[in-house]
């Protein structure tokens, strides 16, 4: 059953953005439902950030239509900015202002005043562990601290919809995990989130994702559904001479991809091959193999099968 209109926070149809004839985003259709984390997954230059900037009203589409929170974009961008939060890829706050001064400045931008202004600044400083850093200049903070401050300013006005562009690209793994727990807290409280990432493990945390390549959406859906329906079986091989085996397999019919992971070779075999293990054992290159076994797909496998040479 399709979602009711009130449950849709983003709807885009035929979205195109061209720069001097180059289509950075090429025919993007999107429907993003309320109460979820929706991720754009893809490498640098695939159109993720350009798409997000059109959704926030910062860029005008060359073609297509965008509706965000029931508002037409970019026509209603001025009204929309008070209903959304946006955290850019690079730290965009003021390094020569303290944590509190940055928050106070953003409160002014969003029209917060009086008791609400004071209470919201106090709330986000406590929630994002900034209270003890209130007088620290933003330019003197670590990557993780800056990330927390950027998130605090993005949610200061309690937006219905939060846009995050590569939010964890400059922080350590522990900070990344903690950051994602904070995102799920926001969703639990009623905020919908759109995030771009090139990290596969982050994309798996999203409720739904769009896989982007060369400005186009190659796949769209729940990570689990995409993994189950990717059209390939995943086989891991443990054997001597994995580099030579990989070279031989990549020239074989029925093989979509092969990549070494430590002491194993991870092979994507076309789904129409009924017995992929037997299919591989029949290959002379695998005679010395000690282990050939079917394993669970990953989102990286989905990415490989839907983009580049793996796309059929």
UniProtKB/TrEMBL annotation:
<keyword id="KW-0067">ATP-binding</keyword>
<dbReference type="InterPro" id="IPR003439">
    <property type="entry name" value="ABC_transporter-like_ATP-bd"/>
</dbReference>
<dbReference type="Pfam" id="PF00005">
    <property type="entry name" value="ABC_tran"/>
</dbReference>
<dbReference type="GO" id="GO:0005524">
    <property type="term" value="F:ATP binding"/>
</dbReference>
<dbReference type="InterPro" id="IPR003593">
    <property type="entry name" value="AAA+_ATPase"/>
</dbReference>
<dbReference type="InterPro" id="IPR027417">
    <property type="entry name" value="P-loop_NTPase"/>
</dbReference>
<comment type="similarity">
    <text>Belongs to the ABC transporter superfamily.</text>
</comment>
<keyword id="KW-0547">Nucleotide-binding</keyword>
<protein>
    <submittedName>
        <fullName>ABC-2 type transport system ATP-binding protein</fullName>
    </submittedName>
</protein>
<feature type="domain" description="ABC transporter">
    <location>
        <begin position="10"/>
        <end position="239"/>
    </location>
</feature>
<dbReference type="InterPro" id="IPR017871">
    <property type="entry name" value="ABC_transporter-like_CS"/>
</dbReference>
């Amino acid at each position: 059953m399709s979602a009711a209109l009130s449950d849709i926070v983003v709807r885009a149809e035929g979205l195109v953005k061209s720069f001097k004839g180059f289509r950075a985003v090429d025919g993007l259709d999107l429907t993003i439902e309320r109460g979820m984390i929706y991720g754009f997954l893809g490498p640098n230059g695939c159109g993720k950030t350009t798409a997000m900037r059109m959704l926030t009203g910062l860029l005008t589409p060359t073609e297509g239509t965008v509706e965000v929170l029931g508002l037409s974009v970019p026509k209603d961008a001025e009204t929309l900015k008070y209903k959304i939060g946006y955290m850019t890829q690079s730290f965009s706050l003021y390094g020569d202002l303290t944590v509190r001064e940055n928050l106070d400045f953003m409160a002014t931008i969003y029209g917060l005043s009086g008791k609400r202004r004071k209470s919201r600044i106090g709330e986000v400083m406590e929630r994002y562990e900034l209270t003890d850093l209130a007088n620290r200049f933003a330019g003197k903070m670590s990557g993780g601290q800056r990330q927390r401050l950027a998130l605090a300013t993005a949610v200061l006005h309690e937006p219905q919809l939060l846009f995050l562009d590569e939010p964890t690209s400059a922080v350590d793994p522990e900070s990344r995990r903690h950051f994602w727990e904070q995102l799920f807290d926001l969703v639990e409280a009623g905020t919908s989130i759109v995030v771009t990432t090139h990290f596969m493990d982050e994309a798996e945390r999203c409720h739904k994702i769009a896989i982007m390549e060369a400005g186009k959406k190659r796949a769209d859906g729940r990570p689990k559904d995409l993994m189950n329906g990717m059209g390939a079986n995943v086989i891991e091989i443990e054997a001597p001479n994995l580099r030579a085996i990989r070279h031989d397999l990549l020239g074989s019919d029925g093989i979509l991809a092969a990549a070494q992971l430590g002491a194993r070779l991870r092979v994507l075999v076309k789904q129409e091959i009924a017995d992929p293990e037997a299919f591989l054992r029949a290959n002379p290159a695998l005679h010395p193999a000690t282990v050939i076994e079917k394993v669970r797909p990953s989102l990286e496998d989905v990415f490989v099968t839907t983009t580049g040479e793996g796309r059929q």
